[in-house]
Design brief:
Blueprint: E1 4-7, E2 10-13, H1 24-28, E3 31-39, E4 42-43, H2 46-59, H3 68-81, E5 87-94, E6 114-121, H4 128-132, E7 134-140, H5 155-166, E8 171-176, E9 179-183, E10 187-192, E11 195-198, H6 209-220, E12 224-227, H7 232-236, E13 240-245, E14 249-256, E15 259-260, H8 268-284
Parallel strand pairs: 7-8, 7-14, 11-12
Antiparallel strand pairs: 1-2, 1-6, 3-4, 3-5, 5-6, 8-9, 10-11, 10-13, 13-14, 14-15
The structure holds N-(5'-phosphopyridoxyl)-D-alanine (PDD).
């Protein structure tokens, strides 16, 4: 089925959507993005995603192409036009299409930033992977140092994912200075003696919107949370592990570098947090 996508002010069939070869997103990965999940035809944590988008744009001195209210209207229009019940909306802002390839940023008055959005239908709440859990390997974190900015420079995370698939596993956790930063496209957690451990926020990781919600729900449910780095060895010795992201919600991890956790099945904390997250997200979606 052909989707209706949004490109710079227009809703068009996906095979008619066009961006310039001079677009800086294409030539320099000079762009930022957001992925907002959709449940029951409604947006999960749109406010969190739009706030992070504003921050990413600000950190890169990139002009916002539309206001947040306009962005919300575009998201909703895409949901309606594609009859999207469950899945996600991908949004990308780039520094626009200059007249030629040039390392110097163009004048934003002359070159407007470009905006693209499209829907992705996917069963996120009833995910088969969540019932089995996923297996991760560790890889060296070779990304740039500003991982708090959600840029479209995703080559290394994509390579990490390929390394995991080549090893017959599902995903990779990236390791820097002996400790885990995060997953290729998700935040990483372990659980030991019912305490949830996840790396504290800094420029080393993306400030996950799902992470913020899940930690809030965990604390509200009286679960203990420690925000600090952990090593692969500590993860292998943990009772359970999981990841979070807008596209995976809370996803149990049942193996780390070949070592099974909790007998190789999803743990109770991850399972409970996934239920709470989906239940609360359904209630709060707009
Ligand atoms: N990825 N860390 C990284 C490196 C990510 O790319 C993501 C999201 C997260 C989780 O953030 P959030 O909870 O806000 O989705 C953490 C998206 C889903 C993606 O690239 O598809």
């Amino acid at each position: 089925m052909s989707r209706i996508v949004y490109v710079n002010g227009e809703f068009v069939p996906e095979d008619e959507a066009k961006v310039s070869i001079f677009d800086r997103g294409f030539l320099f990965a000079d762009g930022v993005y957001e992925v907002t999940s959709v449940l029951d035809g409604k947006l999960v944590d749109f406010e969190g995603h739009s706030r992070r988008l504003e921050r990413s744009l600000g950190e890169l001195n990139m002009a916002a192409p539309v206001t947040i209210d306009e962005l919300l209207a575009i998201h909703r229009e895409l949901i309606v036009r594609n009859d999207l019940q469950e899945g996600a909306i991908y949004l990308q802002v780039t520094r626009g299409a200059d007249v030629d390839r040039d390392f110097v940023f163009p004048d934003p008055e002359k070159v407007p930033s470009s905006l693209v959005l499209f829907t992705q239908a996917k069963a996120v709440a009833e995910s088969p992977a969540a019932k089995k859990g996923i297996r991760v390997i560790s890889v060296d974190d070779q990304r740039w140092a500003r991982r708090d900015i959600k840029t479209v420079q995703l080559l290394y995370p994509s390579m990490g994912k390929m390394m995991a698939l080549a090893a017959g596993k599902d995903d990779a956790w990236m390791v820097e200075d002996g400790v885990v930063t995060e997953g290729t496209s998700n935040n990483a957690y372990i659980v030991k003696d019912r305490t949830i451990v996840t790396r504290q926020l800094s420029n080393a990781i993306l400030h996950g919107i799902t992470r913020a919600a899940v930690l809030r729900f965990a604390r509200e449910a009286q679960m203990k949370v420690e925000e600090r780095p952990f090593s692969i060895e500590e993860a292998q010795d943990a009772d359970e592990a999981f990841i979070t992201s807008a596209s995976a919600f809370v996803m149990p991890v049942v193996e780390v570098d070949g070592e099974s956790l909790g007998g190789g099945t999803p743990g109770p904390v991850a399972t409970r947090l996934r239920e709470i997250y989906i239940e609360e997200s359904r209630k709060m979606a707009i």
